[in-house]
Amino acid sequence: MPEFALAAVSALDGYSQDFDGAVLREVTDLEIVSVAVPIAGQKKLAAKIKSAYGCAVPKPTTTTQSKDGLVRLVSTQADQFLLLFDTATPDGGDKVAAQLNTAGYITDQTDNWAVLRLSGPNSRTALERICPVDLHPDVFALNASARTHMEHLGVLVIRTEADAFLLLSARSSAKSFLHAVVVSVKNVT
Amino acid sequence: MTQDFRIDGGLVDRKQTLKFSFNGRDMYGYAGDTLASALLANGQRLVARSFKYHRPRGIFSAGSEEPNALVHLGQGARLEPNTRATVTELFDGLHASSQNHRGSLEHDFMAVNDRLSQFLSAGFYYKTFMWPKSFWEKVYEPVIRASAGLGKLSMQPDPDTYDKGFLHCDILIIGAGPAGLAAALASGHAGARVILADEDFLLGGRLNSDTQSIGEQSGAHWAQDSLAELASMSNVRILRRSTVYGAFDHGIYGILERKTDHLADGGGKPRHVLWRVYSKRAILCAGATERSIAFANNDRPGIMLSGAVRSYANRWGVAAGKKVAVFTNNDSGWQTAADLSAMGISISAVIDTRDIVAPMAISGAALVMGGRIKDTRGRKALDAITLTSGLTVPVDCLAVSGGWSPNVQLTCHQRGRPQWNDAIAAFVPGGELPKGLTVAGAASGQMTLAAALKSGRKTAGQALVDLGFKYTSAPALKASDEAFSVTPFWHVSGSKRAWVDLQNDVTTKDIKQAQREGFQSVEHLKRYTTMGMATDQGKTANVLGLAVMAEATGQSIPQTGTTIFRPPYSPVALGAFGGRAVGNEFRPTRLTPSHKWATECGAVFTETGAWMRAQWFVRAGETHWRESVDREVRDTRASVGICDVSTLGKIDIQGRDAAAFLNKVYANGFARLAVGKVRYGIMLREDGLCYDDGTTARLSETHYVMTTTTANAGLVYQRLEFARQCLWPDMDVHVISVTDGWAQYAVAGPNARKLLQKIVDPEHDIATEAFGFMACGDVTVCGGTAARLFRISFSGELAYEIAVPTRYGDGLIRALMSAGREFDVTAYGVEALSVMRIEKGHPVGSELTGQTTALELGMDRMVSKTKDSIGSALSQRSELQRDDGRRLVGLIPVDTSDTLTAGAHFLDIGAAAKMENDLGWMTSVAHSPTLGHSIGLGFVKLGHIRHGDVIRAWDGVRGTDIKVEITSPHFYDPKGGLQRA
Amino acid sequence: MIINHPLLGPRDADEFVHLGDAGLINRPDGLAEGAIEAFHDYLYLRDNPAGLYRELWYHEQGDRSWLVVTRDTTTHEISKVELARDVARSQRRGQ
């Protein structure tokens, strides 16, 4: 047994709060791994993704999901996307690396982000106060994603269900981000 | 007071009586009242004193154009000055008071100004307060400040909160009068996403103030039915109490929604929401604003716009007077007379400036065609009017209509230039309108109800077709149309003052004077007389003023110019622009992984950009920051210290061409950095000056991790993206920020390795033979947690930086501190970090100012001349390679009890403190506990060949003049043996 | 302002930062003869047109793309938005 053990702490201490028509929770078990597409390596990577996850590399503003529904792929940049999946162990990067076998450049991004899930009928109304991107269901379809900013903070927003959004923002400013979202929810409920 | 002036009818809810107070007097009104309608109902005619002359003033209008009835609203910290009573929705418990008087409203001592009016004409300030110059600060300015402005601020922090938001739509409809409602119905039915915004709380515009009917319904009923229909559509959003205050580029509009101003208790919700609206099309249906006619003493309480008098009767069930006269140059004045008469209000006279046959009979009223009002009477309010014919008519209310001006404001917010339309004697939208904006209804010059309804539908139809919606035209709505005919008439000439701009006390005399003195251009006129400024922005005054100027210059109105407008359409509280960005929420805060632990350990924090960093850690018994900092430095140098350095920018760089790429962005060579090694690098700007520095570690053939300074993390990342996308687009290189992903701690001091050996799992050999200076690699810590270890030193000691995924950062700092107990480990903050880097002579932001070169920093040999990297070419230009330039040096006070100051300038002994003798300046100073005295870094002209010389550090700001010796900037372990141990 | 991002569609200009003249893409060769002169021109000489202007914008609060935006400086009308990387590549091919 090592003399010193390290306990993992989440960015927002597992924040969880119910509001009138909105539920806000920290998502603590989400592994986030970025994959950069090598120049002239798109085809090879797409094939690897297809064989490993049974889905396509997501186009800008969209996400795709693995065949088993366990992995979500989110476009973040012209030549880069994220893989999001639940895991109990902090080795997401290694897992993806094993799957892709150098077809893409992999960076474990899990600890760069704080993740919130905002759901409920008032979630869109709340986000209206901070999100410049149009989240109207006709425009921001199910599984759509956007990188934008809210209260000066970079945010990746993903519509995961009819009334549910995943919000990813930088971990160091997570408390400010949480505050921004909570105030928005309180202001409309 | 009782509601003596309340009459039957109107759209107020008489079941809901509301109590309010004005100047401490209790009054009553009804739900649906504005403060103005309630004051009128209570017979309160005098409500304000004018800006310059302190003349008694009453309510003039019934909308946001109000120039007179500005009041203090609320109490204590919530007191808000200059609130327009005409748009203030009445609520139970409202407190209002009048402003701009000394003594009571009725007996204002400042009214003496009215008798001094000859001296207070246009340009008074510019002419009077010129000489003597010395009087300005001590005499003139305080006097002007004391009398300037109308209301007074509470001088307390605003207790309310404000919010912002973002809305998206296909069609934004601005104004919910007949044209706006028709446009909204058409757009809503077609399935477009519609936002319908109106500044009023009761939507319908003039439909609520007039008696025309639509189909079989009254206009007001039709409006309510239409709104109910719109409210049932999921694609339509109705924003009440929402002013579209500005038209910005590319279909963006600003809307101020007043959420809680009409509530006695806002329930803690934001008072206002400032919306940014993204629209594909916008339709301006803002209606028109009535203007006045200038005649002698036309500013007394009781003299009102004709349409407002009609509004108070029809919408609010309030008679603005008991004996009313109308003065008009157009048909709408007759409508007022007819409506009031029908409601049983006595009309004494209708005076029409036109020489035409009276359009209608008004029972009991003298009809004077081609008439003029010569003067008015009444001290605190209107008593009587006198016509040029000599006829005097006793009245308590005069309804004036000088015609209607379309509300073109938003069309001017970019390049629009309104054009004169003779048919309606008014400016209509012209020039280049904001892209996507069209105009309907009275705002476009369609001055009758039927025309407004038709143009609303038609304009919406065009927008719908443009956007690809299916639009089927419907039969036109039948409206009982009103007569609208106008013959321009602007002012009755005479020798007495006739007001043009009530809010700024600008009279026809002032305009004529401006013309005589050469301020003829509209823009000059405005600035010289202040016409059109302040809360009403000249909504009722500008066109009249322009007409008077046109007459004075003998030109037509279009020849004289046009009036344009800037945002905001009507006042927006600064709090709304601030939104939530107040106090601690001014900007986001970033916390380091050890923040919680540091708080527990007595850290004093400092802001570094958005980061909160531990500055030093106060231990029991330490009373001065220097004690803590000195101890942290001493203990680190003696044994081991730990510092959170997670704030440094960290960028993951991968790709087949990553090495070549780094060789491009760093000035020194990176092509041959071995895997498992770290190198210090400097970045130049393309102009050859130094930009940033940091270390980059090579983790594998194609994988690097770069660190940047805390301050430049975002900017360096941006420049890397620029380099790979724009400059070398075919290089296979990819960057992603990992700053927040790693908790990184510097472990420094002679016992650093021993401490780390207790944390790093034993299978990783970190002995110096296996893991030498500038080594890096993956390790595991505390029984298998993945970590990265870098053997780099900022303090000059044997030092490492150890990084773990951020989630383990709190655990790692606690583990390191526990493991270090046997070595008397100290945590150190950024202050000790800074002391040690100055002792070591490392440059930071104070030296890397963006104005210094590698040569000046003593790093010129690092700049490779055999490769093309960013800034390499221009770093070689002659000015940046001067032999006689400044160089970074160390500085020690000759009398070591002296304390050096940053910012001091260097002078040779005996040289006068003049710019031409300036040798450079002190960039950084610290008390060095290691050396026992003050030390400094600085740039000295030819400093590299002057080591050992004594010069002066002259600080004119702090008044010190200290002899200092020039030394090497490396005070501590200059050969670097310790960090290699 | 709204910038119609070629990959993401219309986005508020608030999400972007502005750099300036798109000519910055055409970086001279630092090792060539006369490099100092070439860099001087590259870095400091700018047209200041009243009208169409090609300029660089960076989607910092977005997908981190550098864009070449053609904007009319007198009206703010944006007539063209391209990925700077595409522009850089096609210019290189043209050389």
- The run of helices and strands of chain C is EEEHEEEH
Number of strands of chain A: 11
In DSSP terms (H or I, runs of 4 or more residues), the helix count of chain C works out at: 2
Q: SS-based structural class of chain A?
A: alpha+beta
Low-confidence stretches of chain C: none
Unreliable stretches of chain A (pLDDT < 50, length at least 5) are none
**Helicity of chain A, as a percent range:** 10-25%
Cα end-to-end separation of chain A: 50 Å
Global Rg of chain A: 17 Å
General form of chain A: globular
- Fraction of residues in β-strands of chain C: 25-35%
Strand order of the largest sheet of chain C: 3-4-5-6
Which oligomeric state applies? heterotrimer
Task: Give the arrangement of secondary structure elements.
The complex is a heterotrimer of chains A (189), B (981) and C (95).
Chain A: E1 16-19, E2 22-26, E3 30-36, H1 42-53, E4 63-65, E5 71-77, E6 80-86, H2 92-100, E7 105-108, E8 113-119, H3 123-127, E9 145-150, E10 153-161, E11 164-170, H4 174-188
Antiparallel strand pairs in A: 1-2, 2-8, 3-6, 3-7, 4-5, 5-6, 8-11, 9-10, 10-11
Chain B: E1 13-22, E2 25-31, H1 35-41, E3 48-49, E4 56-57, E5 70-73, E6 80-84, E7 94-98, H2 112-115, H3 124-128, H4 135-147, E8 162-174, H5 178-190, E9 194-197, E10 213-214, E11 217-218, H6 219-231, E12 236-239, E13 242-247, E14 252-258, E15 272-284, E16 288-290, E17 303-305, H7 306-314, E18 323-328, H8 331-342, E19 346-352, E20 366-369, E21 373-377, E22 384-387, E23 392-394, E24 397-401, E25 404-406, E26 415-416, E27 419-421, E28 426-428, E29 431-432, E30 437-439, H9 449-466, E31 499-501, E32 506-507, H10 508-516, H11 522-529, H12 542-553, H13 557-560, H14 574-578, E33 590-591, H15 595-600, E34 603-608, E35 611-617, H16 625-638, E36 641-644, E37 649-654, H17 658-665, E38 678-684, E39 690-700, E40 703-708, H18 713-727, E41 734-737, E42 742-748, H19 752-759, E43 776-781, E44 785-790, E45 799-805, H20 809-819, E46 826-827, H21 830-840, H22 872-875, E47 886-893, E48 905-907, E49 920-928, E50 933-941, E51 950-955, E52 960-967
Helix pairs in contact in B: 5-6, 5-9, 7-8, 10-12, 16-21
Chain C: E1 2-5, E2 9-12, E3 17-21, H1 35-44, E4 52-58, E5 66-72, E6 78-83, H2 84-94
Antiparallel strand pairs in C: 1-2, 3-4, 4-5, 5-6
